[in-house]
Design a protein that fits this description.
364 residues; globular; 14 helices
């Protein structure tokens, strides 16, 4: 049994607070001995989310350092702790993003909370550097259905942005994107579309109109229109998103055709999960609409072409993520859809990807 999750009594007279809820704590991590919990459930939740990755770092930061007579030594210790805190922020942010991308919102919360606490320790309670952690907490809260908590996080974020008028467009686009998600969850679709429109504006200014970052804003707008049964607008936006992703992935695949880039990891876990969710959602929507949307009954080649494009995109995505079995499966689906189209420009590139996937599988 892993002794790191066994409860231990706190020393008498020592007041400790739970790492997750800040209530009085009665058990501690037996490895670092500087992290405390109110119950085993919170201890296990933190361990599953982030604690295992930062246990040793927290021990270094939270354990009192021996007294140093010389200022230079004290300054060196402070700089080391600052570097450790910054590393924890980076690590916990990345971990929370990964959990959110996979739809595991409960697991994301402890990581996002740790990121926020460390950012407050470095920058203070009102600094704009806290925005990423607040946005992650808001997004996880929306996923869990805790809308009042999400509203509280977003109100705090808006206040910080107002106090820092020089905030970058990357921050503004993320703020509006998360606000759009909140209003979508509240079924206030007019407000959601307004925020997603602002998201697209700031994202396009920062990353360009043909960026996959901007495309996600269009994808979220499309989902709002879908909830309003505006199928034509939904499909138009989905087509734009699909085309953007296909172009982006095709360029990356072209790079991997060079031997020095073959096998290179182009997406982390969070990016892969997010891209897969969008592309799979659109492919499923195409398959569901084929028998219900009038346009598809009169122009079935359009639906087949879109399904070929999306399946090819998913095949390229998994190839770039080095999952060659999934790449081959989606490549074969793309080939099937492509063969049913009268005029398909994808056939050659699909077959090339299938061959490359088969080659990698044989060598694995």
């Amino acid at each position: 049994m892993d002794t790191s999750i066994l409860p231990l009594a706190n020393p008498k007279g020592t007041k400790k607070l739970c790492e997750l809820c800040q209530k009085p704590a009665y058990i501690q991590c037996t490895k670092c001995r500087v992290t405390f919990y109110c119950n085993v459930t919170h201890q296990q939740a933190d361990l599953n989310s982030i604690h295992e990755k930062v246990c040793e770092l927290l021990m270094s930061i939270r354990t009192p350092a021996p007294f140093c007579c010389f200022k230079a030594d004290r300054d060196f210790q402070d700089m080391q702790n600052l570097n450790r805190l910054e590393h924890i922020i980076e690590l916990s942010n990345a971990t929370a993003k990964s959990w959110v991308s996979e739809g595991k919102y409960s697991e994301a919360m402890p990581a996002a909370q740790l990121s926020l606490r460390c950012a407050i320790e470095i920058y203070g309670p009102d600094a704009v550097e806290l925005v990423p952690a607040y946005l992650l907490l808001a997004e996880a809260s929306i996923g869990l259905g805790s809308l009042p908590q999400a509203e509280s996080c977003l109100s705090q974020t808006e206040w910080m942005v107002m106090k820092n008028p020089g905030c970058g467009r990357s921050v503004l686009h993320l703020l509006h994107r998360t606000l759009g998600r909140l209003y979508t969850a509240k079924e206030d679709y007019s407000s959601a579309l307004l925020h997603f429109a602002n998201d697209v504006f700031y994202a396009s200014e920062e990353f360009g109109l043909d960026s996959v970052v901007t495309a996600e804003g269009y994808f979220l707008m499309a989902n709002v229109f879908m909830k309003q049964d505006q199928t034509d607008i939904t499909n138009s936006l989905h087509a734009e998103v699909a085309s953007t992703w296909h172009t982006h992935l095709s360029k990356l695949i072209e790079c991997t055709s060079q031997k020095e880039h073959d096998g290179e990891q182009h997406f982390d876990v969070a990016q892969c999960a997010k891209a897969n969710r969008m592309l799979s959602w659109m492919l499923e929507a195409q398959q569901q609409d084929v028998n219900t949307h009038p346009a598809y009954r009169t122009a079935p080649s359009y639906s087949l072409g879109q399904r070929a494009l999306l399946s090819h995109s998913l095949a390229m995505l998994w190839f770039l993520c080095n999952d060659h079995k999934k790449a081959l499966d989606f490549g074969k689906k793309a080939a099937e859809f492509s063969q049913q189209c009268e005029h398909s420009s994808l056939t050659e590139s699909i077959q090339s990807l299938i061959q490359r996937s088969e080659t990698h599988l044989k060598s694995e």
